[in-house]
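Model: Ready when you are.
Researcher: Fold this.
Model:
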Amino acid sequence: MSSEGRKSAVLLPSSSSEDFCKAWCNQLRGGPKELARSFAKMFVVWITTLLLLNEARGRQVCYERLGCFTDIPPWSGIPGRQLAGLPSSPEDVNTSFFLFTKDNIINYQLMLLTEDVNCILADWTGGSSGLYTTAVNNVRIVGAELVYLVNFLEKDYGYSLANIHFIGHSLGAHAAGEAGRRKPGIGRITGLDPAGPLFQYTPTMVRLDPSDAKFVDIIHTHAGHLFFDFAPGILQTSGHLDFYPNGGKKMPGCKQLRVPPATRDINDLMREYRSIACGHKRSLRYYAESIITPNGFVGYHCKTYRAFVLGNCFPCPKEGCPLMGHYADRFSNKTEKEEQKIYLNTGACPPYARWRKEIHVRVSATEIMKGNIDVALTGTNGIRKEYRIDKGTFKPGNTYLNYIDTEISGNISKVEFLWKKHVGHRGYMGAEKVTIVSGENGNVERDKKGDKRMVVGIWIIALYLLGTVAGDEVCYSRLGCFSDGPPWSGVPGRHLTGLPDPPEKMNISFSLYTRETGNNSQVLLEVENANCIAVDWKDGAKGSYVSAVNNIRVIGAEIAYFLKILQGHCFPCSQERCPMMGYYADRFPDRLKMVNQKYFLNTAANPPFTTWRQKVFIKLSGVKKTRGSIYLAFHDTEGNAKEYEIASGVLSQDQVYTKYLDVEVNPKNTNKMDFFWNKTVYTLLWARLGAETVNIIHGEDGHM
């Protein structure tokens, strides 16, 4: 009997060893008969022990293509891996491989659009859709199937192992590790939140580890222990580079699941987590986005996530920082050491990539004040976001620092200092200097000195206040000028600074809805036959509240300008004529005279969409007053006719009624116009109305 067998035999009765010894001693005191009975019982114990030892040697199953599989340690019966059984048969697991290329883009478009690769999907739902413990055992079958595929590619197609990259999620990560263990020399394995239960802190033979490929990178997104903080992902480091976004345990945008009781069965726990799995699946989303964001997801070497949050690992060293995801292999020191811990933060929703900045704000103020210091950053791509730097009590001349993770990639083109003081303070706060350091390279992106009017000193503050009263001004060709002098700012109840954004940045648009077009404003259009015009100025409102308040004036001016158009203030065209929308816009002689010229027109609801704007004057004759509606019908040479309502309600003799019409009949082809009216049911039978004169002004040239 081997020493290993003896050890196993001793451990089997461990739960009742004390009672077993007491019973043996009592049998010896009972004399020969009792001793004989004891020997008989002991013989039974020995036979049982031999059977157990034989069982401890384990069972084994072999398959022709894939080799043999056993259930001896470390595959089962060790701390952290208390499971039994052998893998299912290859037929039951039913591992299938699907090839996608640039000529066959059905799935995985992101990868195939950026690289010319053979993307092979391994589907083993037959072996993973049942109990979690069964799926854990089946990982070895999938790993062996992957090796069978690699051998085929290597032998028949000359594939180099160094060019093979396995990407596995959850149990799939360990299946990739099993393949790497069986077939040394694989180029890269990426583990996307590798499964934790029954793998955590087990021998490397059982789980994914750095020896399974030349380069192994891991993304941990829902990691924890088996008990205490149970989670589906593995917490321990398992690769050369282990990325822990947001600390690796809880992802922003995902609800934290309740920690279940430790007594529950592992299969029940994993079934519950599989049904939700927001954090567990987030690793997939991060990796997918990294493919199209080659400079995003910068990670920082740190001992702990807390050290990262405090900025102890900021900025990146001279050799740079690794990128989490698809481009992790670009890091020059990726395999210098194993189990390197990398930390970074992400957003709560796509796009998830963030870029870390260190921001220093040196404040100037008239006194010690309480409030909040924020900054608004605008990138060269036009994205503007606000960030909290600090809150509490601030002293003049002090510098306050914070680390932010911004969604703005590239350089910062504009920095705004935002101050919100607490109630009870009458002083003024400004930024003397704002410094922004980029985490990727430690470069100072922007070293902005504050407004000279915002420095400490009574006389300079007084000059600042005078300057505010005098006010700055900005003017726009169509809308007029806007000032930041009182009452627009610097008055009680309106302590704000700044001017409105330009109209082009706000991108104000007007959308028309009628009973014919519908879609929006249904309630209003059901009760009234009206033209419902929606004003969209979300680009001017999506920034800070202060900016939106300033932008209200530009919105009002745009609406006033639009009302002038509706009232005909832009009618008819000037002597320079009007531009034509579409292909012939280049015929307009003044097209380059100014930038951002805005022109408005209406179209028909259905093809042909072209309309011609005309102003109609109708002088009535007949009874002095009656109720009804008057219409004008336009006829062209091709027999087409369109009818338009001019006025309705109480109509009076000798009254001239005017209306702007967008006529769908070309004036050059108009050969006839008809006037008619519809009276209401309450109108007297003898009442009649006629048109004494009908005059029409054409918009294109103003002729009548």
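Researcher: Now this one.
Model:
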Amino acid sequence: MGSVFQANCRVLNTAILAESWQNLTVQHPVRRNLPTFTKIVPDRFLQGRSIASLPDTFSWEQVAEKYLKSAKLIIEQNAELRAILNSQKLDRIDRTLETMAPIPTDFNLEIYQEALREQYECLDLGNLDTRSGEYERQLTVKEIFIPQNARYCQEYLPKDYELPKEIQNRLRELGEIATEVSAEDLERYQKAYTQQQTRSILEIIDDFNYRYLVILGDPGSGKSTLLKYLALQWAKLPPNQLSSQPIHLLVELRKYNRSKDEKECSNFLEFIERGSSWVGHLNKSILHEWLQAGRAVVMFDGLDEVFEVQKRNRIVDQIHAFTQTYPTVKVIVTSRVIGYQQQRLKNAEFHHFMLQDFEPEQIREFIQKWHDLTFTDRLKKAAIFERLQQAVEESRAIQELAGNPLLLTMMSILNRNQELPRFRAKLYEEAAKVLLHKWDFEVKEKLGHEKIDPYIIDEEVKQSICGRIAYKMQSSGEGLAGNIINREDLRQTITDSLSGLMGNEATACAKLMVEQLRERNFILCFLGGYNEDYYAFVHRTFLEYFCAWEFVRQFEKQKTLDLAGLIQVYREHWRDESWHEVLRLMAGMLDAKFTNNILEYLIGEDGEAEKFSNLFLAAECVSEVKKRNEIAGVAVKVRDRVQELIKYEISLLLHLKNMTT
């Protein structure tokens, strides 16, 4: 308590006060030996209880602030003390002049809590649901959050090796992904990765063995939502617990980098103190004391969103230096995989984990929470919940999408307003409409060219853009194996799509649309990048859907494909299982009479060398057709051929069994 009489004292260490209080076991009768407590704790607070028991509204910060003000008043009123204080201050004038910019000097944790809640508490559905204003109340991150599971990936980043070989080699040349390992080591890493038991990401964060963490994940996998949830958990603490719990600091690296560019700050503490995009400014000198004492959890969100290589490297170096300056502080970093260079933070003793897709029970929990929070009518809620849950359980296509939190949210929105389509092509079309809706919103405002209609980029144009992008991806050497495209190819593809509508302005518009993908996930998303930026469809399903959509468009609207050309697509790709999804979707999109011709072609092919995959593909295509009566004849042929094949397989198995007995 005597530290208040030092010239540089601006705050009391309330953690020491709180800890000392908790250690006291003195009962009410002993208060006679502690007379100073009488002034601090009135009788009504004690009532025979342990002095450690305090009401929830009690705040050590408020006590310390009042005590500090009282002590300073005593100093000001006492000439001798004032002379000593002034002498001490003279020694600090030079250093003080260096920091005389108009910066906040408060360290009010309750105000910071309120700022966090205002900034992050409500779930922003504006990009997914134009009718979110119709909900009975706003959804909050805390209410809807489902903690995902994660796998340890210190030695092996699976996403690096799931890319096509050609793209892997290109990315390695650019330093975007890990160096190649031998086939034996790769197999060993893959086996160790897949066989390890997943753990809740919250359990991992609470594990004292992992002071420094890097959490990696796909676009829309919930990395940022996780950090917001952690910050909001701290922001909900009552005032009397703020001194005993570590402060949670959420640094959005995209905003921090912009603040550095604008010369507002040069390091993290300055950004927290005076950055224009930081919420609830905190005095850096006081914060420094908290950090030195290890009384903080610092979360750096979106390393991949710092796009310039040199700037990202400097921020990584700053994060490393931060852990060296404050070694007892918990530090969490999030990033997408592409472009993330693991070794730099791995050398700084960071542990790496990969977020996993939702498990079936997590999907069900999310759906239950969603409907509980968005419906007040019990009967309506039960019916719509059951409709979505049944769709997830019965449709493999919907199951695949539902593992991604962003896409599960999208399907919950779709289900709220309509029954999810039974046929996959229609389901993907409706899902794509949701994700396409606001992709061009900022472009319309920013383009601002008087000769161009700012609303020319309508839904049909955006679908055409996505179709061309999917076609460009599948036309590469790796075909549909690679859901990835670099920035220049993406810009050029969008420019080509818009040139007929916008002329010379197509290039500028394409640039703006690509830049938007860095800020938010739409139907396309930013994957990351180190020396070069890469983009992809937010889920592989949309690559397959738009690839099929583009072939059908070329056939039905552009007339650049005739029926023979359409059948040629099947001739070239039916042996490749990675194409089966596209070929099935095409069969569902086309008029039934054209699908009839395709089915006749497939069952006429000799597929024995390919284990008759032509027949199984034909059967799958039949299931995609809406108007089955229009293909009844060929559908019977497909069924009979498949049944003959199954009977032959069973007969062969029985024959082999008899030979061995």
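Researcher: Key takeaway?
Model: Residues 120 and 228 are 6 Å apart (CA to CA).
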